[in-house]
Structure formats: structure tokens, C-alpha cells
Amino acid sequence: MSNLKNLKILFVEDEVEICKNIDEAIGDLFALFEIAYDGYAGIKKYKKTIHDIIITDISMPKLNGLDMVSKIRKISTSVPIIILSAFSEKEYLFKAIDMSVNKYLVKPIDVDELLNIISEISNGLSSIQNIILPMEYSYNSKDKKLYLGHKFISLTKKETLFMDILTKDKTEYVSNKDIYAYVWNDEVSDSAVRTFIKRLRQKTNKDLIVNISGLGYRIKA
Fold it and tell me: Could you tell me the pTM of the whole model?
């Protein structure tokens, strides 16, 4: 499964032994296999790294898996999510479907089945990773790179995060609140964001990023 080696996986599970066993079994197959032990830690790690696939348990302390997914869906509507659950939690299945969860895997975890699901999702990711933008720009959501034609445009980490969240759904604007949380972990002033946008427009095109006054930003239609 050579398509796995470039993936960044976030595994959210409160049982330490399960995390250890899964990490030992498949962790080395990926570019990054990161573990969080509760929903809040999962959100924090996702905001920091931008993982390709999230795998999460439902029953966890502090913030359960479905509540975590609900919050992550406000950041990204497209990141693939695999739900792990015991038979006794099947009543959560319909709620998970409403959150656009990609797969639902019943515990105990079958490692081969999990790998097959990840591989299947990865194959789908590779077919949609190059996002065509206006004015001959494109953004590769897999490599996190912006291009003008075939010319690579170097972005800082925060500029990459900004482009990443804006290109998740080009048809909708992203709220200021979600942008501030995703790019700056809420620790930023409005004036700093305006300066940031101005510099990014200088790197690209002043019309590529559209401001929806008082609401947020979007990619030009």
C-alpha cells in the first residue's frame, strides 16, 4: 500500500493500550501517525498539523468523538473521518452519518480492515487533491502548495493554513471566527489579519481572495 506513505493520520482514542497496539502495528506506514487521548486534544492537534485522515473513538473523556467531529466539521467539511465504536454504541451511527463521517468501524479493531479503509479513502483523496482556482491558480490540498500555472508560490505556514481552509469549499465563505481559530488559534487581532491578507494578496493576485465585509473570506468565484 504505497499510497499510505505520504499520509498524515490523527488517531483519537482514550485507551492507551489500543493506541499503543495500533501505533506499533501500522504507525510506521505513514508520514505521520499522531495520537490524541480525548476530543479536545484531537481538535488541538488537528488545527496544528492539518491531517489527511482522522480516526476517532466515540466514548472519550472531556469531549466525546462525535462532539469533536462536529467541531472539526466547522473547520473542514472535507477531511475524511473514520469512527470507531463498540456494538453497544450503534445508536450513534445515524448521528455520525449526518456529520458526513466516511466510515464506521466496529471494535475490536481489525488492523487489516482499518488499513483497507484508509487505503480506499487515500485513493479517493488523490483524485481530488488538485483544486483549480480562478486566474490560472491551483492549490494542491495534499502537498499544501499553491501554483500559478506551473509556477510554485512559496507560502508561510500561516498562509498555507489560510489557503487550506479557504479551498475546502470554494463556493462558501469561511467565517472570521473559523479562520482565526484555524490559522491563529484565536490569538490574533483584526488589524494583524488585515495586514496578513494584504501581504498574501501581494504574493498572489489582489482579486483572488475576497472579503465578505464583517463575515469572513472566500476564494473568488
Answer: 0.63
